[in-house]
Amino acid sequence: MYRLLDHHPQMFIKQFATMGSHAYRIMQAIHQINTHFEEPLRISEMAHSLGMSNSLFHRHFKNVTTLTPIQYQKKVRLQMARKLLLSQHVDAATASFQVGYASPSQFSREYTRMYGMPPKSDAKRQGKAL
Q1: Which has more confidence, 10 or 123?
Q2: What share of the chain is helix, strand, coil (3-state, %, to 5)?
Q3: 108-113: which pairs have CB atoms within 8 A and are 24 or more residues apart?
């Protein structure tokens, strides 16, 4: 977001505030993903609901977030899972299911890729740091 605002702040703020603009519709999609991250992401349905083609939706989503919708959802899911692991002290399998993963092993691989260590190790390390 900083990178976008740094170049032409007035233009981007105006686009986000202008109802019906591509940026405004992408903000709606981001809100939808943030509030329903545990649900499967259906790109074609989301694009259609925003009045965009799949390719246009992908392009504008990536322009705003620097991520594809799937990458963005994955990041949100992993952040929420980490929050569950650290604040509610649930195990990795429980956290993975609560944030929408069907496979705890896939969750563990992606978590390790994002945070540099498996969920259990990260939770132990973070617990000591608190």
Answers
A1: 123
A2: 75, 0, 25
A3: 110/74, 110/78, 111/78, 111/81, 111/82
Q: Locate tokens 């499967």: which residue?
A: 40
Tens digit of pLDDT for each residue in 68-114? 999 999 999 999 999 999 998 899 999 999 999 999 999 999 999 99
Average pLDDT over all residues of the chain: 87
Here the contacts of 88-96 (C-beta below 8 Å, separation 24 or greater) are 89/123, 91/120, 92/118, 92/119, 92/120, 92/123, 95/119
Decide: 16 and 26 in contact? Cβ < 8 Å.
no
Closest of 92, 95, 101 to residue 38, by C-alpha: 101
Helix, strand, or coil (residue 67): coil
**For residues 69, 71, 129 and 104, what is the CA-based torsion angle, rounded to 10 degrees?**
110
* 54: amino acid identity, one letter: N
The Cα–Cα gap between 125 and 2 comes to: 30
Q: What is the pLDDT of residue 114?
A: 96
